[in-house]
């Protein structure tokens, strides 16, 4: 008896081939989708435990985030629909203001960084719910300006990184339409030390960035007046800073009151091309200040050979709690330690 066999009609062969093609399509489609998602979510960009991040890439995203946030800040201010409200009171008793500009800038900035580098810790001034996160991603291109100044990758473990975002610095001044003080800022800290700083001025389209042991697009000024310095302080969170300064440096000391920590740090630098920026030799703050307000400026100063410390000269660590209790002393091109000693006798009374 001849063995039984299976014979397919031409129609059956066609159906079988179609089924096979369908299986192959779904397998290929699934693999393609997986690769696209891996690419968009930062495959190899701090997306898993034990992974590393190239700080040049993180700098590129930080610059893009600050500038995207700046677009939102500027658009809301020009629409005059701020939706201003208060988050509570500052320690000085003033309203801690928040606007639609803060929220929309925060959404853009935090979404871009979290989507592009899902493995890093991101601390931001305004809360971002998962439902509010936008589907925006980095195109994985490092700008030529960054590649020219920082030519080699700088890899660090993703778990060592904390990103600090200030989506709108100088909100108080923003509500008063004093927009020259307004900045958006991103800082990257590695093991608590600030290594990347980006400060963007939305209303003049000026962006300063720097990486410690890397490069920068901004530089220190040619000279600073250490004997009779011009000192910049906060106009809305001043505390007793003016009294401390006059007692320390003399009654003829020139004091500039300005909004925003980002603006004050830029006043210490050579910001050629940003004609609306005032200049100062020292930045002093005597009250509590949030770390997202100062981290970017700290990184830029450190990259250029300057310093930002507490009034007692202590290093500020950018992990854990979001505030700095020890006041602030920022300088570049002067003897920072001598300034600390000069201020030492005045700090206890404040």
Describe this structure in words.
- With 350 residues, the protein is α+β, with helices and mostly antiparallel strands.
- It has 2 domains: 52-211, Fructose-1,6-Bisphosphatase, subunit A, domain 1 (Fructose-1,6-Bisphosphatase, Chain A, domain 1, 2-Layer Sandwich), CATH 3.30.540.10; 219-347, D-Maltodextrin-Binding Protein, domain 2 (3-Layer(aba) Sandwich).
- It contains 9 helices and 18 strands.
- The protein has helices at residues 10-40, 55-79, 100-116, 144-149, 171-175, 241-249, 261-266, 291-303, 336-347; strands at residues 52-54, 85-89, 95-98, 121-124, 155-157, 161-169, 183-190, 193-201, 206-211, 219-220, 230-234, 254-258, 269-270, 282-285, 289-290, 307-309, 323-324, 328-331.
- A 5-stranded mixed β-sheet has the order 4-6-7-8-9, with helices on both faces.
- Helix 6 (241-249) links the parallel strand 11 and strand 12.
- Helix 2 packs antiparallel against helix 3 (100-116) and helix 6 (241-249) crosses helix 9.
- The chain is globular and about 55 Å long.
């Amino acid at each position: 008896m001849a063995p039984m066999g299976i014979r397919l009609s031409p129609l059956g062969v066609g159906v079988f081939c179609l089924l096979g093609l369908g299986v192959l399509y779904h397998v290929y489609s699934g693999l393609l989708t997986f690769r696209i998602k891996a690419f968009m979510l930062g495959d190899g960009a701090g997306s898993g435990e034990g992974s590393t991040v190239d700080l040049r890439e993180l700098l590129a995203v930080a610059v893009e985030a600050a500038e995207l946030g700046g677009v939102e800040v500027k658009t809301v201010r020009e629409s005059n629909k701020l939706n201003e409200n208060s988050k509570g009171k500052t320690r000085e008793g003033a309203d801690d203001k928040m606007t639609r500009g803060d929220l929309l800038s925060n959404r853009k900035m935090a979404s871009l960084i979290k989507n592009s580098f899902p493995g890093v810790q991101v601390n931001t001034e305004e809360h971002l719910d998962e439902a509010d996160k936008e589907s925006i991603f980095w195109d994985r291109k490092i700008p030529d300006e960054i590649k020219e100044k920082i030519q080699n990758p700088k890899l660090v473990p993703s778990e060592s990184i904390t990103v600090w975002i200030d989506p709108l610095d100088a909100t108080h001044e923003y509500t008063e339409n004093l927009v020259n003080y307004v900045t958006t800022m991103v800082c990257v800290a590695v093991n608590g030390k600030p290594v990347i700083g980006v400060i963007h001025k939305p209303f003049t389209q000026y962006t300063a960035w720097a990486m410690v042991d890397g490069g920068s697009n901004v530089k220190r000024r040619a000279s600073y007046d250490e004997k009779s310095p011009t000192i910049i302080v906060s106009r809305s969170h001043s505390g007793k800073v003016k009294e401390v300064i006059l007692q320390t440096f003399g009654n003829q000391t020139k004091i500039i009151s300005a909004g925003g920590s980002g603006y004050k740090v830029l006043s210490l630098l050579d910001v050629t091309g940003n004609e609306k920026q005032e200049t100062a030799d020292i930045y002093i703050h005597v009250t509590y200040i949030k770390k997202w307000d100062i981290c970017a400026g700290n990184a830029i100063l450190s990259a250029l050979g300057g310093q930002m410390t507490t009034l007692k000269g202590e290093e500020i660590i950018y992990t854990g709690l979001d505030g700095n209790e020890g006041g602030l002393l920022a300088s570049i091109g002067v003897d920072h330690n001598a300034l600390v000693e000069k201020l030492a006798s005045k700090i206890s009374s404040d």
